[in-house]
Amino acid sequence: QREKKILVICVTSHQTELADLLRPISEHIEEIQNFREKNRSSHLFNHLSAVSESIPALGWVAVSQKPGPYVKELNDAAMFYTNRVLKDYKDIDPCHAEWVHSYLSIWTELQAFIKQHHTTGLVWSKTGPIAPPSLFTAPSAGPCPPPPPPPVFPDEQTKGDNSVAQRSALFAQLNQGEAVTKGLKHVSDEQKTHKNPALRSQGGVHHTSTSKDKVPGSTPTPVKKHSPILELEGKKWRVEHQEQAHTLLIEETELRQVVYVFSCTNSTLQIKGKVNSIIVDNCKKLGLVFHNVVGILEVINSRDIQLQVLGKVPTISINKTEGCHVYLSKESLDCEIVSAKSSEMNILVPQGDDEYKEFPVPEQFKTVWDGSKLVTEPTEIAG
Asked: For the purposes of burial, counting CB atoms within 10 Å of the CB of 165, is it exposed (0-12), middle (13-18) or buried (19 or more)?
């Protein structure tokens, strides 16, 4: 049955039918991503993140021209988390390493398949059979199927249906090519403000909305308010969903504990003692002051972050972040700072009592071939 559906996709010429065929895949992808978001406290969160970040690659059949690079990009996103898995379980359990290699091989083999058979995307046949309606609607004959199991995520059902429908409509519109502009209305010179000065004082032409202008599912979904969390769960300190909180403090720490800071806005957190690692994820305008970290401090998917090291930290990693100021201590001047896909990063080095000198982290690089290898160095523009 799976082979039959793939054959039908390759010969159909109606984008709406393609969207309907891909609908079950889209629903499962969204269900997987929601499962990851609901299990951020899991000790297998990096495993879940690797799957969640790469699973949209299953939609490569809807990517025109070059689906191969699309799959590779999502595979690279998964490797960001699988590298953490390999590091965390290096000397603990080899099964996790086997899982990483097995999972990543799915996408590498898919890339090889696309490169061999569909380098420029799926080729649509003009003479092949059209997908029958039975693939889009449930059969009317036969005994009634057993009732479906209860939904795994009842709170997300409505939102999932709307987003899938909107995504399907978007795919259908984008694949029209030049025909996408056929639905645009012609604007006469009398309706153009730059040719009719009288309209400028009136604020332009006012369009009276009708029932046809209303797009189904366009009503914005209210953002769910999460309760702030500051608690120790096993070996992990969870600091989540804090807003306008400037007195957050973690005092009783141990060497084996990790601190996970997620979705905090306009807040300040102080961590005393020595911890194993600190992760700052999806935060905005966060100030973090800490003493000692024996592993790594990671900042990812964040904006306007200020970090101050009072003791030592061997490695600071900054990924997908806009705006990050790092205040180093005299004991932490030998730390390594690794950055990727980030901007507006500055390192402040102590010069005396309460005095710092600011050094920007390069964002622009130049790569040349020296005859045997690639040599990359920061450009003068980036400082």
From this structure: middle
Residue linked to tokens 């996709």? 9
Q: Which of 98, 94, 103 is nearest to 74 (CA)?
A: 103
Are the folds of 15-131 and 229-378 the same? no
The yes-or-no verdict on residue 77 having pLDDT over 90 is no
Among residues 295, 357, 302, 284, the alpha carbon closest in space to that of 327 is found at 357
Strand positions, DSSP E, the chain: 229-233, 236-240, 248-250, 258-262, 265-275, 277-281, 284-293, 296-300, 303-309, 315-319, 322-327, 336-340, 343-352, 355-360, 365-369, 374-378
What CATH number has the domain spanning 15-131?
1.25.40.330
Read off the pLDDT of residues 196-245 as tens digits, 9 standing for 90 and up: 666 555 555 444 444 444 445 455 566 677 899 999 988 899 999 999 99
Distances (CA, A) of 79 to 28, 93, 95: 21, 19, 17
d(CA 73, CA 107): 10
Q: Given the structure tokens 């996103």, which residue do they identify? A: 77
Mean pLDDT of the chain: 78
Please write the tens of the pLDDT for every residue from 292-324.
999 999 999 999 999 999 999 999 999 999 999
pLDDT at 222: 63
Residue 311 contacts residue 292 (beta carbons within 8 Å): yes
* Domain spans of the chain, in order of start: 15-131, 229-378
Q: Return d(Cα 383, Cα 349) in angstroms, integer.
A: 16
Token digits of residue 180: 């996408």
| DSSP per-residue codes, 283-309 | -EEEEEEEEEESSEEEEES-EEEEEEE
The CATH architecture to which 229-378 belongs is 3 Solenoid (2.160)
**Three-state SS at 327:** strand
Sign of the four-CA dihedral 329, 334, 335, 339: positive
Task: Kindly tell me if the per-residue pLDDT of 81 is higher than 50.
Answer: yes
Quick check: helix, strand or coil at residue 243?
strand
Beta pairing class for 365-369 and 374-378: antiparallel
* pTM check: above 0.90: no
